[in-house]
Amino acid sequence: MLGPLDIHQYLLEHDVHHEIVRLPRPAAGAEHLAEVLGVTPRRCLAIHPFHALTPDGDLLVLLMAPADEEVVPATLVFALRELLRDQLGPDAELSVAGAALVSRRTDYIAGHLAPLLLPPDVIVVSTRGVLDLATSIIYTATGDGGTALGIAATDLLHLSGALVLPSDGPAEVAAPAGSGYDVDTAVRIDLDPIAPTPITLPLPSEAIFGENERPLGTGAAARVRKRTASGTSSPPPVPVVAATAS
What we know:
By secondary structure, the chain is α/β, with parallel strands linked by helices. The protein has 7 helices and 9 strands.
């Protein structure tokens, strides 16, 4: 099973500023994580899994949303079907995915799923609420209940390759993954890249991994700063925003 060390190593390889935070007590979900960290639920990420059945097989679809954002499965099923019509086909059937399916397809414990290091056939979608958080630090699970990942919302969207649900209803056409922050065929929004400037995260708990990739002692705050890009590895494609033309 994947865990915080796997995520930490992956983010180091992509020079992404982040922290793995040791929790004072285990967290059972996104809302509980906010309580444990002492932050607003808006800054904690909930992941809602859906099982998509298509004529060609079945897929796992993960929807990311702030913990305080109301999620109505019936409404989301319709929105996801429209957004992913080109990928799933017009006859796809979506339902809430069970824990066993989530663990089998992602290699994470179902209740502590992170939207990173996922297989290529797992589709990641985000609500507009996550994109609106921009460079704010948000917290998500790491594969176990004793730690959390602190990372900028835009970095998480970028690395997960998430499609973003429109805020004004289901999309008619989803832009292809990796094409940039495309809103629809009529309007294009170009976002400036995040400047590679080290930032200090105001985390409420101590971090356990730092730049030296070794666990730090009690009371030490580990900061993983962006470094000068090296090697030949390149980050995953940027997230795609799909929306209906206004």
